C-alpha cells in the first residue's frame, strides 16, 4: 500500500490552488511565468494584498482589482480560443495560446508583421477590452498564426466576431449569433 508521503499526487490540489493564487497563465509551474509585465503587475498586486488586513478597505479594493484583472485576462483568452476553434484549430487552440517566458518567436522576420497584426487587432476589433494594454504573450500567438499561414484569416474572423463599435453602440447575443 502507498502511504501518502510516497504519493506524488498527494499535494496536487494544494499546488493547483497555490498556482491559481499566483497567476492563471499557461504553465504555472514555470518559475519564469511572472516575468511578463502583465504577470508582474498581477503578482505585485497579490503580494501587496496579502500583506494587508483582510478586513481593511484597501484589501477589499485590491482583491476586487485582482479579480477583475483575472476575469479580463480569462475573457480575452476565451475570445482568442473561440476564434481559433472557428478557424479549425479545435485541438490546437490551447497549445497555440500556451505562452511562457521560455516561448520563442519562430522566425525573427515575422516579428514586425506579428506586431502590426496585434496592433491592428487592438485598434480595429474588440478582441481586447478598451482598457487593455497589449500583452507580449499575444505577440507569440500571432507569430504562431503567421507560421501556420492563418494570421490574416484570424484577423478577418476577429473583425467579424468582435467588430469595433462606437461607445454608444451595443450588440446583444442574438445579433452576435446572427453575425457569426
Automatic annotation (TrEMBL):
Q: Which gene encodes it?
A: Mreg
Give GO terms for biological process. melanocyte differentiation; melanosome transport
Q: Which PANTHER family does this UniProt record tie to the protein?
A: MELANOREGULIN (PTHR34340:SF3)
Give the highest taxon in the source lineage.
Answer: Eukaryota
Its name, as the record gives it, is: MREG protein
- Would you tell me the Gene Ontology cellular component terms? melanosome
Task: Provide the leader sequence positions.
Answer: none
Organism of origin? Nothoprocta pentlandii
Amino acid at each position: 500500500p502507498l502511504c501518502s508521503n510516497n504519493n506524488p499526487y498527494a499535494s496536487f490540489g494544494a499546488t493547483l490552488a497555490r498556482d491559481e493564487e499566483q497567476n492563471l497563465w499557461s504553465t504555472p509551474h514555470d518559475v519564469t511565468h511572472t516575468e511578463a509585465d502583465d504577470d508582474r503587475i498581477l503578482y505585485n498586486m497579490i503580494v501587496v494584498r496579502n500583506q494587508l488586513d483582510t478586513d481593511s478597505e484597501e484589501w477589499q479594493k485590491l482583491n476586487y482589482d485582482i479579480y477583475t484583472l483575472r476575469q479580463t485576462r480569462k475573457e480575452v483568452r476565451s475570445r482568442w480560443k473561440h476564434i481559433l476553434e472557428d478557424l479549425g484549430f479545435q485541438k490546437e487552440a490551447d497549445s497555440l495560446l500556451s505562452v511562457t517566458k521560455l516561448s520563442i518567436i519562430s522566425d525573427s522576420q515575422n516579428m514586425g508583421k506579428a506586431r502590426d497584426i496585434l496592433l491592428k487587432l487592438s485598434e480595429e476589433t474588440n478582441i481586447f477590452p478598451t482598457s487593455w494594454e497589449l500583452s507580449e504573450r499575444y505577440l507569440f500567438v500571432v507569430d504562431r498564426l503567421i507560421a501556420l499561414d492563418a494570421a490574416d484569416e484570424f484577423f478577418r474572423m476577429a473583425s467579424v466576431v468582435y467588430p469595433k463599435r462606437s461607445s454608444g453602440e451595443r450588440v446583444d447575443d442574438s445579433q452576435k449569433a446572427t453575425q457569426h
